[in-house]
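Deliverable D2.4 — example input (structure tokens):
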């Protein structure tokens, strides 16, 4: 009876370890596909209409694709959006976003202006307004990988109206800014050559776990499953003897 319970427990744990291993492999394959797709876009950099792409991707929010886009428009007079817990070269900081309305588009989108360092006291930097018309270009991409949802509020409104986020979810940002129309599910990562904003790059996995690490974790889960199976066999044989 005890041997049977031992095997049930061992098999349950082994099954869990194997499932976690395959989940990690799935995440690695998913990110490999994202990298490959972004490279195809960045190698060509054929500029599509920002207005058309913004409306298309808003209508097809479940479509995961990238596009090099360019267009004119203006930044809406809305609070700046800061994504917290963003490191660069080992330094803590925030990613800076503003809501941009492309000309002739029904929907707005978030434009990533780049990364800013935080001082030791974590006092949020003041952001200057960006009035007038702007022509922007860059990579329409997925928002940065979301952190764990621990049940708290992912959006904190500061005294000056600035939104400080722990997870960038365009739907929730639009609600926090009281926008009547939804904003695009993709963000525009500005071309680093543009003289606007701060330090940035076009790495689609910036700040996220690379595929190689997912594969490493998968190997660890499979190794744990194998080790537990061997241990269960050894213990079972000893008890039988």
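Example output (designed residues):
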């Amino acid at each position: 009876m005890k041997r049977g319970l031992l095997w049930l427990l061992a098999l349950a744990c082994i099954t869990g370890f194997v499932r976690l291993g395959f989940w990690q492999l799935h995440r690695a394959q998913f990110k490999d596909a994202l990298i490959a797709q972004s490279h195809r876009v960045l190698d060509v950099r054929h500029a599509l209409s920002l207005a058309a792409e913004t409306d298309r991707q808003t209508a097809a929010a479940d479509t995961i694709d990238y596009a090099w886009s360019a267009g004119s428009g203006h930044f809406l007079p809305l609070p700046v959006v800061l994504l917290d817990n963003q490191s660069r070269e080992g330094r803590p900081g925030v990613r800076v976003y503003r809501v941009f309305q492309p000309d002739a588009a029904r929907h707005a989108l978030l434009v990533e202006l780049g990364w800013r360092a935080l001082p030791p006291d974590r006092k949020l930097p003041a952001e200057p307004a960006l009035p007038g018309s702007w022509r922007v270009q860059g990579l329409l991409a997925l928002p940065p990988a979301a952190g764990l949802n621990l049940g708290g509020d992912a959006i904190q409104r500061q005294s000056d109206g600035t939104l400080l986020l722990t997870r960038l979810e365009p739907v929730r940002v639009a609600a926090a800014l009281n926008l009547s129309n939804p904003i695009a599910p993709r963000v525009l990562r500005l071309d680093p050559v543009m003289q606007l904003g701060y330090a940035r790059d076009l790495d689609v996995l910036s700040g996220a776990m690379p595929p190689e690490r997912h594969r490493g974790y998968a190997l660890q889960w499979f190794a744990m499953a194998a080790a537990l199976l061997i241990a269960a066999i050894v213990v079972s044989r000893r008890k039988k003897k």
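Residues 46-208 form one domain.
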